[in-house]
Amino acid sequence: MTILKIGDIVSRKSYGSDILFKVVDIKRDGEKKIAVLNGLCFRLEADAPETDLIVRTEDYVKNYNEKMKRTVNLKVQNLDTPNRKLVKKKFYRNYWSRDEKKFEKPGKVLHIDGDKDYLAACLEQYKKFKIEAAGVYLKEKDQPHKVGELLKQYRPDILVLTGHDGVIKNDKNYSNINNYRNSKYYIQSVKEARKFDGDLDSLVIFAGACQSMYDKIIEAGANYASAPYRVLIHALDPVLICQKIAYTKIDKVVNPEEVISKTVTGVKGIGGVETKGKYRNGFPKEPYNKK
């Protein structure tokens, strides 16, 4: 029998091995070992007895990650920006051309995340989108105490408050905040952020993770939140929300349905309110900066 250790990638037998987790801690309950789990691609926090877990091989994990990556890429390849036009070719694949006379100023992001690996993946994706983004690793319970000073430091257009969450097993009372692992911290963080800037169009906020208490996070002042149907959300869903807001012009209001359609999870995992975009065109583009 394999000895379970921190850092192992596992699946849960009781859930049909539907998603993969990383073991982040191991506790004891009498003679039983209880593993604390963070989703590998989904922002879920859970726990499970060692007997319910299967330690997965490197090849299994690689195949799983590649499948998840293909799912994200299908969403990403259809995203556009205001300065690009779709050029249709008769015999070759269509491509996007950019107006070279203008320069772009998409919205700036401050992304606060309770998971270091997810934060790194999100920052990499922001870079690919050419969105200026500052990333701060901060455990969920510490986010309410630090978000105000971080907003003063970075002055973002868009704030992301995320990490892990989950409904406590065997308790489906969705109206009780104590039945969620981290939702109370997201709610508190949003309230603190709104003390800094109470205008939903001035500071756009995404908050939450898997199965988070959506209605209370929105009520606290978030523009977008998870999860209306208490489902899992993908690690990069917050980035896909940010991309749409960051690249929508400031004189346009984004329909929530349009933004949510760009995510991996969709309407069961993400919801929000009408919000103005954060994108500005600049003209002319100087000839000396070749970046």
Question: What does this molecule look like?
Answer:
With 291 residues, the chain is α/β, with parallel strands linked by helices. About 3% of the residues have low confidence. The strands form five sheets. The protein has a six-stranded mixed β-sheet, sandwiched between helices. It has a five-stranded antiparallel β-sheet with strand order 4-3-2-1-5, with no helix packed on it. The protein has two domains: 77 residues, SH3 type barrels (Roll); 181 residues, Cobalamin-binding domain (Rossmann fold). The chain is globular. Helix 2 links the parallel strand 9 and strand 10. The protein contains seven helices and 17 strands.
The structural class is alpha/beta
How many H/I helices? 7
Name of the CATH homologous superfamily of the largest domain: Cobalamin-binding domain
Distance between the termini: 54 Å
Residue ranges: pLDDT <50 for 5 or more in a row? Answer: 85-92
Please indicate the count of domains.
2
Q: Globular, elongated, flat, extended or rod-shaped: what is the shape? A: globular
* CATH class group of the largest domain: Alpha Beta
Instruction: Give a quick account of the main beta sheet: strands, pairing sense, barrel closure.
Output: 6 strands, mixed
The secondary-structure element order is: EEEEEHEEEEHEHEHEHEHEHEEE
In spatial order, strands of the major sheet run: 10-9-11-12-13-15
What share of the residues does DSSP label as strand, in percent?
15-25%
